[in-house]
Design goal:
about 450 residues; alpha+beta; Beta Polymerase, domain 2; Hydrophobic Seed Protein; Hypothetical protein af1432; 4 domains; seven-stranded mixed β-sheet; two-stranded antiparallel sheet; 23 helices
Length: about 450
């Protein structure tokens, strides 16, 4: 029988339960990942002790989710989340159980979980692994299978359809045919799930090693058509790219490229959305070739709408959309120093690396390889430009200085400062207080005369 290597502190924790007549188990992902040889110390515990009983046998307990049987025990410097064995009532809103019933049976508790590979339990005293739903067989066969009747599992919580995609993507497993069929039949129910939960699952899928395994399942089941219909439109839009006959296939290739380099979530999300504007921008040129003029700007606009719909933060939206909007920018050696500086200001110093990573992955998806070496000169020029004045704050003159020479603090002052910056970007030697004061006076007089 397989054993889970229970840390000594957890054995000590479990022994207190036993001394008081209760049992304690590690459940779910930590056990599964151990069986797969994956490091995971994110432990979830379940017990036959009621929440109140747990609070009685430990001095420091936080009732984090006591209504649903969960408390957090502070034990020797760690926080252990412990949930009482339970069964759940009907899910009338397809999100949350209408009721929770505490039970004494581990089997009843495990039977309410989503997939067989997530229903393992390990005895916290001796590490014995309990497999009541043939999860071990599914691990060996690399299959994600719903526990019991798949329709019932997805009716209980429609988000499980996205979790199916995520686990297939994360583990490199296939979806059990009956489980996949149930997800397909119930795909419209994903509309009942909150945008925040959908976004959380989507981002977790994007952060796997092969995101398109999960994305393909979302597409195949029809879940994608509900949560990201913009991507389905891309499947209907043909284009000629290496290894891609349509825009969505190209997007998939770009997303997998971001994962292969372990790029961050901003770049991965940008890759997913960077071309969603193409279908609405498709035109045939005079020679009958497809062109997508302005799709970068359109894709950024649509991406912002998508991310708002998913309740993403404004900061995250800004980071994603700025690099989508600029992903078609192509540096030329004949750019002036001023042009390089304006590029930095337009994109933002903090976003440039993300932009380049998106462009490299877009190139891989389009041409089969990236042109990283072509960026060497551009990167060197950016570094040089960053040593020179770039923003109004870098000017040798301030708003207070302009006020002292008679320019009122108003919208006009802001316009004058921006004009001075525009001069300094092209001619850094003009960044002296005396020269800028004279220029400001001339600009102000010209505006006043108009």
């Amino acid at each position: 029988m397989r054993k889970y290597p229970v840390p000594e502190k957890i054995k000590q924790f479990a022994s207190i339960f036993k001394e008081n007549g209760y049992s304690l188990y590690i459940v779910g992902g930590a056990v599964r990942d151990h069986l797969l040889g994956i490091q995971n110390s994110d432990w979830d515990f379940c017990t036959d002790a009621l929440p109140q009983q747990v609070m009685e046998i430990f001095k420091h307990v936080i009732p984090t989710g006591i209504k649903h049987g969960t408390v957090t025990v502070l034990f020797k410097g760690d926080q252990f989340e412990v949930t009482t064995f339970r069964t759940e009532g009907a899910y009338s809103d397809m999100r949350h159980p209408d009721s929770v019933k505490f039970v004494r049976s581990l089997e009843e508790d495990l039977s309410r979980r989503d997939f067989t590979v997530n229903a393992f339990a390990a005895d916290c005293l001796d590490g014995t692994i309990i497999d009541l739903f043939n999860g071990m067989s599914d691990l060996e066969n690399k299959v994600i299978r719903a526990i019991g009747v798949p329709h019932e599992r997805f009716q209980e919580d429609a988000l499980r359809m996205m979790r199916l995609a995520r686990f297939c993507s994360r583990l490199g497993f296939d979806a059990d045919p009956a489980t996949l069929e149930a997800a397909t039949e119930l795909s419209q129910n994903i509309a009942f799930v909150s945008a925040e939960r959908i976004c959380d699952e989507l981002t977790k899928t994007l952060m796997t090693k092969k995101p398109t395994v999960g994305l393909s399942i979302l597409e195949k089941t029809g879940v994608m058509a509900v949560i990201l219909p913009e991507l389905i439109d891309c499947r209907k839009c043909e284009q000629t790219k290496v290894g891609a006959s349509d825009v969505l296939e190209h997007i998939y290739n770009a997303v997998d490229a971001t994962a292969s380099f372990n790029y961050n979530l901003v770049v991965r999300m940008a890759a997913l959305l960077h071309d969603i504007g193409k279908p609405s921008c498709l035109k045939l040129n005079a020679y009958g070739f497809m062109r997508f003029y302005g799709h970068d700007v359109k894709s950024a606009e649509m991406a912002r709408d998508v991310l708002k719909r998913l309740k993403c933060s404004n900061a995250f939206m800004d980071q994603v959309c700025i690099i989508i909007e600029n992903h078609m920018v192509k540096y030329q050696s004949n750019w002036t120093d001023g042009a390089v500086k304006r590029f930095i200001n337009r994109v933002g110093k903090e976003n440039i690396n993300n932009l380049f990573e998106l462009q490299w992955c877009d190139q891989i998806a389009s041409e089969g390889k990236s042109r990283v070496e072509a960026y060497d000169e551009f990167i060197a020029r950016i570094k040089e430009a960053e040593t020179q004045p770039l923003t109004v704050k870098d000017l040798a003159i301030t708003g207070n200085d302009l006020a002292k020479i008679g320019i009122p603090k108003s919208k006009v002052m802001g316009e004058i400062l921006n004009q001075l910056l525009d001069m300094v970007l092209d001619y850094p030697k003009m960044n002296s207080k005396e020269i800028l004061e004279n220029q400001a006076k001339a600009i102000y007089e010209a505006k006043s005369n108009n």
